[in-house]
Design a protein that fits this description.
Blueprint lengths: L1 E5 L3 E11 L6 E13 L14 E14 L11 E3 L2 E2 L2 E2 L6 H5 L1 H8 L3 H8 L6 H20 L9 H8 L3 H9 L9 H4 L5
Antiparallel strand pairs: 1-2, 2-3, 3-4, 4-5, 6-7
């Protein structure tokens, strides 16, 4: 399931994510939060017609992940990507506060989406308007990834149910593992169907 909080120029997307490390096949899962820029679309139809919403340009991402082989709730794999090159994220950025206080850190990051956009090299027409709206909604936005946190996902089947719409990404990971011999085949079995 993907949740979207859509504003004037940006949207915050929230979902559960399942990740396989391509180097050593360890497994991670948890909440993925993305800031995306809305691409303006021409008005279509009457004044009452449904309009197209396009959330294509990624700006910033936080991955509040646990390692599946680690301590639940330790956020050992929690990191963020402060910018994107097109659709590809920058390298993972690690900060102790992201692991120690992920929800407080996330609310702090959401307190100024205008600054997140500037850091990412993305220009917004009126960053203060969206920043104020996202800041006001930050408690509700943070509650969404908390409901998809790694500690809320208690089995491979539940993780699959929450991520089956992006099973193709898991298949890409499975196809490019450097050490497939280290893979926990039982844990990834739902994605192999």
């Amino acid at each position: 399931m993907l949740q979207a909080f859509v504003y004037n120029e940006v949207a915050v997307l929230v979902r559960h994510w399942f990740e396989i490390d391509l180097a050593d096949s360890h497994l991670e899962h948890g909440a993925r939060i993305e800031l995306r820029r809305l691409d303006a679309q021409p008005h279509r139809g009457s004044e009452s017609a449904a309009q197209r919403i396009l959330l294509d340009q990624p700006v910033w991402r936080a991955d509040l992940f646990d390692r599946i082989d680690g301590a639940p709730g330790a956020f050992e794999a929690a990191h963020f990507h402060p910018r994107f090159d097109g659709v590809e994220p920058s390298e993972r950025h690690w900060a102790d506060v992201v692991k120690a206080q992920p929800w407080e850190w996330l609310q702090g990051q959401l307190s100024d989406v205008g600054e997140l956009a500037v850091t990412a090299g993305v220009t917004l027409r009126d960053p203060t308007a969206d920043a104020a709206q996202v800041r006001a909604d930050a408690p509700a936005i943070v509650a969404a990834p908390q409901s998809r946190a790694p500690t809320q996902c208690r089995s491979a089947e539940q993780c699959y149910a929450w991520t089956q719409d992006v099973a193709h990404a898991v298949h890409l990971m499975l196809d490019t593992l450097a050490r497939p011999d280290l893979l926990d085949h039982d844990r990834v079995s739902p994605w192999r169907h």
